[in-house]
Write a structure and sequence with these properties.
Blueprint (H helix, E strand, L loop, with lengths): L18 E6 L5 E4 L1 H7 L3 H4 L14 H12 L4 E8 L5 E12 L5 E9 L3 H20 L5 H16 L4 H8 L6
Antiparallel strand pairs: 1-2, 1-5, 3-4, 4-5
Helix pairs in contact: 3-5, 4-5
Amino acid sequence: MKLKIIPTTNRRNLGAEDFIVSKTDTSGRITYANRIFMSICGFSESDLLNVQHNIIRHPDMPRGVFKLMWNTLKAGDEFLGFAKNICADGSYYWVFANITPDYDKNGKLQGYYSVRRQPPQSALDVLIPVYREMLAIEKRSSAKEAPDKSMTYLTDVVGQTGAKSYNSFVLSLYKPKEV
């Protein structure tokens, strides 16, 4: 069961050299969370382990982004993207995520490995209005059709930029500050 957390307007920020690392099984249940992850989200290791990773999904995140993520991962490809996550106390934080399928020595999928870092504000300035429109599309659609319709909008936006894929689009937005 997903916890009912009331979102606040309090923003937390990852440090420029912070990396959130987590692993999940094939269904998205957390099997590993590093200390930075636990620190920023405010959940303990026991709160996170064997729980669906969407425990940190902020309601401002369109379902279409996650539909695209799962489609990409199930195709065996890595997924790059920006996400707004919620903390145990209702605060939020943004990340730039790199999620890859994790295979055992025999080539069998055993889960997913995710590394997240601080996103540049310039990328969020581009994506926040896109995500808002995706949410509006989802609200106007049936629950079943909402993720597909908002994902279609997102892929149309990406196409209008001339990017060859969503991953190449978000990489073009990810320009970290020099440290």
